[in-house]
Amino acid sequence: GQPGEGGVQPFVRCDGGVDDVVWPRHPPTVEPALPRLGGLGRPRSVHTRGKARFGSTTPALPRVATLGRPRSVHTRGKEDGRTSVAGMDAIVDRLRAAGCVFAEHEARLLIAEARTVAERERLVDRRVAGEPLEYVLGWAEFAGLRIALEPGVFVPRRRTEFLVAQAAKATKPHAVVVDLCCGSGALGAALAAAQPGIELHAADLDPVAVRCARRNIAGAVYEGDLFDALPQALKGHVDVLLANAPYVPTDAVALMPPEAREHEARAALDGGRDGLDVLRRVIADTPHWLAGNGTMFVESSDEQAPPLAAAMHGVGLTPQIVQDGHGATVVRGQN
Prior knowledge:
The protein is α/β, with parallel strands linked by helices. It is built from 11 helices and 12 strands. The strands form 3 sheets. It has an 8-stranded mixed β-sheet, with helices on both faces. Strands 1-2 form a two-stranded antiparallel sheet. β1 (7-12) and β2 (18-23) form a beta hairpin. α5 (161-170) crosses α6 (186-194). The longest helix is centred in the first third of the chain and has 13 residues, at 85-97. The radius of gyration is 21 Å and the shape is elongated.
């Protein structure tokens, strides 16, 4: 899209309310959400990224597409072969006493991951001490994939599967895709699984995240600040840009559950005063990198979507706000 003359257009929200937002010419459209990517198990334990949600849920069972079949909870232990009912109950009691709402489910995952009784006890001890379950296990389930994680690396949220579903619709075979602020590389890995054959590039400022991403995706992963990390040869050739940049307002980080605010890197959460500092930088440079019909996709809270759409329009992109009705909001901008 191209900038045009100003005007006041009503922006209709999915909750039925109407906001008056000044749009230069083309207000963003809000379309009904597509179904989430498949039946992806139960809710997860680590918390949503934006300020719209701060509750915690439980992790999905390990149904892994790329790293093997789901393991039985009794197949891995070497010393005792099978955890007794009494042993299982004791672990569940410890987890429940520590505040784990879905203690039985977490106990099964921890038992399945441990090779020995001693390792099992160490894993349970870490979880009881408050370490996020995904760090204890060493992986998170995302879009049916097992994504390797290390402590401190942003844990991919289930709501972000909606962003991948939206991007998959716009991704053609052999498309050039960039996963910016990639963290563990979960978004790029999920999109590559949904659309095999893409040319995938990913980048992050955190060297630990980059190391994780290189374990999770087959494409090139670069270390550096936003677009500065990418090869200049990609300019003008990116068909799909994913940018799950931090968007929690600085003052709201303190309201996040301890598993997030005390264990994940602050830079992966804090988006500045209104949560949009990093996303504004991404949007400002995106037109230089997108191909002629290229599209960018970002995640935000419901309240942040209109200013993001306005920023996209301001740099010549045609914005669109898409919501799934369950708290996930994606803003896309097409060249």
